Inverse folding.
């Protein structure tokens, strides 16, 4: 689902997930290749088949032993809030969709996306997808 959202919003998977060998230890991760913002380090070829994940924040491995993709994603998302970090503009739509639809965080105004030139209550692309999904008749 996450990869579909990234694709739908035309955002790069590499901004959210960094892939390393499945035997890689936390101290072996090349930190200079990690983003400053929270990201999931996937130990394996795919986020679907990996059995181990890590969390990086500020180019540091903050948790090197995460056993499920859902836990890694929740920890990454929670890091944006716990450390009061703005969403990177390259992932803004995907993270805002997760915030509003999966984590049910719906502020009355504003967004956590950095460098937002327009002060909108909600990203128009996120709003459009939410409306399309809610208008769809599920059978």
């Amino acid at each position: 689902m996450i990869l579909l959202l990234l694709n739908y919003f035309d955002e790069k998977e590499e901004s959210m997930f960094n892939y390393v060998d499945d035997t890689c230890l936390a101290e072996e991760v090349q930190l200079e290749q990690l983003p400053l913002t929270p990201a999931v380090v996937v130990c394996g070829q795919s986020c679907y088949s990996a059995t181990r994940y890590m969390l990086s924040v500020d180019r540091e491995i903050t948790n090197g032993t995460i056993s499920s993709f859902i836990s890694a994603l929740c920890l990454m998302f929670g890091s944006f809030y716990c450390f009061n970090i703005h969403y990177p503009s390259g992932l803004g739509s995907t993270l805002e969709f997760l915030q509003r639809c999966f984590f049910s965080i719906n502020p009355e105004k504003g967004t956590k996306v950095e460098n937002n030139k327009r002060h909108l209550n909600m990203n128009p692309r996120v709003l459009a997808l939410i409306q399309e999904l809610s208008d769809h008749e599920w059978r």
Observations:
- The beta strands are 17-20, 39-43, 53-57, 60-66.
- The mean pLDDT is 87.
- The longest strand covers residues 60-66.
- The chain has one domain: 2-135.
